[in-house]
Structure formats: structure tokens, C-alpha cells
Write a structure and sequence with these properties.
Helix content: 25-40%
Radius of gyration: 30 Å
Strand order of the largest sheet: 2-1-4-3
Distance between the termini: 50 Å
Low-confidence stretches: 1-6
Structural class: alpha/beta
Oligomer: single chain
Largest sheet: 4 strands, mixed
Order of helices and strands: EEHEEHEHEHEE
Number of strands: 8
Shape: rod-shaped
Length: 172
């Protein structure tokens, strides 16, 4: 017998006296003893799989367990392919950014947001620029206004050390 990583009980692992049996086409065969059901499955060269371990009425199905696990793993891989993981893209600016540089950075941020990624806009203060934190806050507010039709503010402006940042999330 091939050992397969499993989460369902199969064949001799089933420790219940009587089970409700369903064949591979979905037809109910009724209630019978576990050993009788295993013999029936083995005669068809299939496995007896405990589908529902309900205490009062356990249900087993006759199927090819290896094929079932293979198809299940294929379905899981397919569903993982369709998932998109939102990444966090960072855009760094200074508090005294020029208009052209600002529009270029805003255009990149818009592109990131439209592709479904979150954007972290960071204002980096150097030297005495930290005394004028209001300038950095103004730059961040300008980003919010520029990108308001494609994003929402997920985390508002916050000063940490020499950096002030905010996080923008794409609109659904």
C-alpha cells in the first residue's frame, strides 16, 4: 500500500463498526459493516474513504484515493494562481520637492495603485529640514489630493525618526 499524506481516514484506519456507504458514481449502497465495505472497495480495486466522521452516522465513499488527492492538489494550485498578493511599493520624496519631480512620482504611484498594489509615500528629512515637518505633511497631503480618485488613505501621516510616511490603498 502506498503511504500518502492524508487528512481523511482510509481502509483499515477506519475504526467504526458500521458505516453508510456511497459508491464512486454517488449511489448510496446503504449501511454495512466496515470490513464488508472495505472488501467491496478492494474488489473494485478502490479505497474506502471516511468522508464524514459523524459519530452517529459515519459516511464512507468508495473511490481511488490517490487520484482524489492528486485532483485536490491540482485544484489548490489553480486557486493559488488566481490569487493576487498586494505588494507595498514605496515612493521617497523630500519636503522641498519640485513640481516636475512631484508629478513624476505621483504618476508612478498612480500606476502602482491601478495595478492593485499599496503605496507607501515617505518624506525623508535631512539635517534641519526636520524643524519644518509641516512642509513634509503638506507634500503628503498633496499626494493624497492628487491620487484621491484611485486610492484611499489606509494609514495617515506619521512621523518616525527622520521619516514621515503615509500608506495609500487602491480603491476596490
Amino acid at each position: 500500500m502506498i503511504c500518502i499524506k492524508q487528512d481523511l481516514l482510509i481502509n483499515e484506519q477506519i475504526r467504526v463498526k458500521e458505516v453508510q456507504v456511497i459508491d464512486e458514481s454517488g449511489t448510496q449502497l446503504g449501511t454495512m459493516s466496515t470490513s464488508e465495505a472495505i472488501d467491496m472497495a478492494m474488489s473494485k480495486s478502490k479505497d474506502l474513504v471516511l468522508v464524514s466522521g459523524n459519530v452517529s452516522n459515519p459516511v464512507c465513499k468508495i473511490m481511488d484515493y490517490g487520484k482524489f488527492k492528486f485532483e485536490q492538489s491540482k485544484r489548490e494550485k489553480e486557486s493559488k494562481k488566481k490569487q493576487t498578493v498586494a505588494q507595498l511599493k514605496e515612493i521617497r520624496v523630500t519636503p522641498n520637492i519640485e513640481d516636475h519631480d512631484f508629478s513624476f512620482k505621483a504618476k508612478n504611484a498612480r500606476k502602482f495603485l491601478e495595478s492593485g498594489d499599496k503605496v507607501k509615500v515617505t518624506v525623508r528629512f535631512r539635517g534641519r529640514e526636520l524643524n519644518h515637518a509641516k512642509l513634509g505633511e503638506a507634500v503628503l497631503n498633496k499626494f493624497v489630493e492628487e491620487l484621491e480618485e484611485v486610492s484611499t488613505v489606509e494609514k495617515s501621516a506619521k512621523l518616525e525618526g527622520k521619516n514621515m510616511f503615509l500608506i495609500l490603498a487602491p480603491l476596490k
